[in-house]
Amino acid sequence: MRDYVIVSDATLDLPYSIIEEYGIMVIPMGVDIDNVAYNFHPDEKELKIDEFYEKLKAGADTHTTQITPIVFTEYFKNILDEGLDLIYIGFSSGLSSTYNASQLVMEELIKEYPDRKIYCIDSKCASIGEGLLVYHAALQKRNGLTIDELKEWVENHKYNSRHWFTVKDLFYLKKGGRVTSVEAVVGTAFRIRPVLSTDENGKLVVVSKIRGSKAETEFLINRMIKEGEDLKSQTVIVGHSDNLEQAKKLAEEIRSMNVVKDVIISQIGPVIGTHTGPGMLALVFMGKKCDL
């Protein structure tokens, strides 16, 4: 049976140690900072995450770019030419057309490599929600699933990646069209922080609004307790964008509850950080959607 690799993109925001340990291949993504173009790799070899947030807080103008069909073609062909099949788990199509580009490339490469298996899956997830799904896919691969079995597993479980996050500065969301100018001004003035997740179409939605860091922690933990399934066997992920102190407090509180196997803290990279700004706090776990 031919071996295969799991491929994702730089929006997954997993710690590089996990990416390396499980042999996950990650396609870098472009970030422009004050008209200087960078490719962001999980090992930060071209752009350091801390340096990115320092520039962002200093007022840098930042934009992100999608993965082009040319890049997908080159990356996928390199894998196929090594005699490996591949399964790509990509950033939500509700937030980017990157996944659609991968689909077009897959359709062309199947003609060129008719005896090979090339699968592209829309994660319907963002950031560490996508990362959590990829991490669990890697665990399933290590447990012996074939590429066809893993494809089915990911399709069946992608909505079980429950991801919740808050942001500190609403102006970054306003820039991306997620909140109005009035909401941004009022929300920032009164320290109102929106709670966001993704819907069934993988689009970002504001699901609640809270005030203060204590309320943030309580909300995120309550969602984990309500929606999480088999938490005792799970490693959950706390994500943050230049917000390590609060992320550590959230992780410590979860550990003190003794309800999960482990907690990983991961820093949100520049691709997602451009749209959330510094101060984001997130918690992701496997579970099922429940009403607020």
UniProtKB/TrEMBL annotation:
Protein purpose: May bind long-chain fatty acids, such as palmitate, and may play a role in lipid transport or fatty acid metabolism.
Keyword Lyase in annotation: no
Molecular function GO terms recorded: lipid binding
Superkingdom of origin organism: Bacteria
Record-given protein name: DegV family protein
Pfam family membership, one: DegV
Keywords: Lipid-binding
Coiled-coil segments on the chain, per record: none
UniProt keyword Transit peptide present: no
